[in-house]
Amino acid sequence: MADWSPRTIAALSWLFPLVAILVGLMALPDAVNDPLALTLGVTALVLGSLIGVATSNSGNRFTTGLAVAAALPLVLTDGMGRVDPSGTVISYDGVDFAGAVVIYGFGLAAVWALRYARGESHVDLVPALVRRLAGYVVYALVYSTMRIGIFAEFAGGWEDLLPFAVALAAWLAVEVGLRSLLVVGPRELSRTYLARALLHDLNVFLGLTLTGALFGELYPALEIWALPIALLPYSFAHSAFARFQETKTTYKQTIRALARIPEVSGLGVDGHADRTTELASAMAKEMGLGPNQVEQVEFAGLMHDIGRVSLNEPNVITMGYTDDDIARWSAEIIAEAPYLDRVAEDVRNQYEPYRRPGESSNPEVTAVARIVKVAAAYDWQIHRDGRSPLQAMEHLHAGSAYEYDAEVVASLRRLLTSRGIISGSNRLSVG
Amino acid sequence: MEKKRKRRLGRWFSHLRPTVRARLRVAVPYALIGVSSLVVAFILSDMPGWGVWTAFAALFVLLEFFAVEVNDRLMQSSSVMVIMTAGVIFAIRADSSAMFAMALMGAAGPLVPSDFKERRWFQPIANFGQMALSGALAGLVLDLSLNPFSGAIEVNDLLGVVLASLLAALVYTTTQNLLIRHAVKTVYGGENLEPWSKMGMLFGSQVAMGLLGGLIGAAYLIANREAILVLIVGVYGIGHMSLYAFAQLRDSHIGSLRGFVKTLEAKDMYTRGHTERVAYFAQLIGEELDFSGTQLEAIRWAALIHDLGKLAVPTELIRKRGRLDDAEYEVMKDHAHLVEEILAEVDFLQPMVEIASGHHSHFDGNGYGGRGHTEGRSPSLEACIVAVADSFDAMTSARSYRMALSQQYALGELRRHSGGQFHPEVVDAFERALNKTGRRWGAPHVNDEEMARRLAEEPELTLRG
User: Fold this and answer.
1) Which residues in chain B (31-60) have CB-CB distances under 8 A to chain A?
2) ipTM exceeding cut-off 0.95 for this assembly
3) Sequence-distant (≥ 6) Cβ neighbours of residue B17 within 8 angstroms
4) Half-sphere exposure (CA, 13 Å, Cβ side) for A335?
5) Contacts of residue A250 in chain B, CB cutoff 8 Å?
6) pLDDT per residue as tens digits for the range A326-343
7) Ordered alpha helix ranges (H), B267-375
8) Residue B406 β-bridge partners
9) Whole-model pTM?
């Protein structure tokens, strides 16, 4: 899909809630016979959407609204109470598909209004809401279709979960697909990265949707008791997600602070680590690396020059040093931290050429190391040597036979073009 | 007769190392407790349905394996929820009872591969005993209290299930904690244990999880739908795995900071290990002053970062023999500000940064420091603690220009400056805490600075005695 202009996005963002409400009103007479159920459903969805669960590092935002949405088709399944004389649920009469979609549509429109009022931009909102609505319609449709099919007769056993599991997989597939296809605004993130980022947060998605399904399964027999019983295991998961995110943020803050030590001591260029990291992680996302690798790029970018703290050692002052020494010292320091061995290895290798004469590539120099190397070299050119972005790119292109990976340099060029730092039509001057 | 038997037993164990003897003193009775619990439960119980039992036991062992360490040697595992769910199901079902099912599940709990891989024998045996007994007792409570609902349960009975589960979870958690604490105290000594008063959160969360487990078991029986168990296990498993990932990340976070501090200390062989020792002394003082767990953690972090600013100070200055001149002293003073500058954006460390930046501030308001120091005012109690710990370690460690001083001398110096440079209460608390440990620091016979300097300059003096 082509990138949308800001005006189109603005127009669509206003149309979205109107269309959602209109469709909802049209479907309403057939959808929900019980206005109380409609009101409760929409209220639960809106309240749930206000309770944030986690905003992952890849930018995916999850709220409790997801659990409410997942529960709707299960709660709106007719005939769930029909039991045989032994007390076992024997079959279903069908799912109120229209009801679930109408409640979700109204809820989403209300959420849009709230988030828009809080000042969120159209660029972020419209694709997210369109994606969610599409994913949800598919989920509800698959679930309803399977419930009136062969699975209607299997009610009560573990097979109950099959329609839900298939519908959930379809929902996820639509979300992942649209996450990568429906990109608006300037595109710095590759489609592959967007899809992988959503899959990376699968645990949160599953935690929430399974909680919704749990409520849906418990509700017919336990009624109001279903709420605390479904919420208790969920609250444990919720607090675990929150603690994980909080620690991750703190961890990154600490690493970022420690990475500044050489700069604070006057042994490096001010802001080099931060700028290198920002550029390197943007390049990694543009190139379609997964969230774990992007995180590695961030750590390696932040700490690639930490070894400079050794530059005020008396023997270094006397004997001098090379870039290779700094890479080695940095890697030694990073290796002291548990779980950062791979980052240490990447930092150690980032001063190596990405290939030597006669080689197609050096397998020891990973994509992470290559990206950090190019980003750091670009920043040195600009902030230490005072060159222009075009001159810096020229230097990188010139070195792309052995020193800098040509694919990474091309990614940097695309990134700088999309940011308007260099013009896409510019030809690099020679000499 | 009794004495004779004891003497004979003593002879059997006398050739063993004291640590092995201490472990055996726990392992033997705990193994007997475990076996007895299983036998008694077997006699008193109806057997559970083995298919369902195996599924629960497998999950129970898995969660034990991924237990999250909450503090030294105490692990938090969500397995209490699983064993309680199984217990309630077996207690209510007409043809089974909970006591043996829970005791056997508890006995299977210590089957953690890492124990076998690392050839640990004491932990699995001790855990076998404490978990089998805890399971058997909790099962007995459930069997007795849920007897009226046997065979059929309705929504209206849930309140009864809540009460029974609460009681059983209390019995399970209390028994487990008592036995673990006894084992840890016997083998590792009491100083490794958090006081009961500080275990409220852990205890409370374990009981709450047990209660939840019981409710889930009842809900499963009322709704009569297998899908519910699968969903519960899914939600719970995802939550537990996130908690496990959190614990790994937290360790990595602390480890990274420790790693950097090691780098700092590698600059000067004479200060190697200084930070860890300061953290240890500060913790001793904090415990002596009855600090809460949160306060103790803050002091530990503050001690860990208190010299971080020195990374930015030229190494030759850190290693310089003799006194610093005024200009050098100014550069050195800057390290208190530098720690603030370096860690300015680490939100959660800000209270600790304030403590760290005030560790050169004096009790009487003199000294220097960052925002933790205000001329003419005493710094925070925590900063005073780090100051005492830092000074004591500086005196009792060797420097390039002098030998380590004795503990007696260092304590004398702290007392001499008590009320001026150092907080009197902190100095007193430190002396008390140090005496309790029975450990000695520094070089025993070096009792004045002059002697320490001469010994460093002329090492042969040491050889001559």
Assistant:
1) none
2) no
3) none
4) 12
5) 253, 346-348
6) 888 888 888 877 778 888
7) 274-288, 293-305, 315-318, 326-342, 350-357
8) B442
9) 0.72
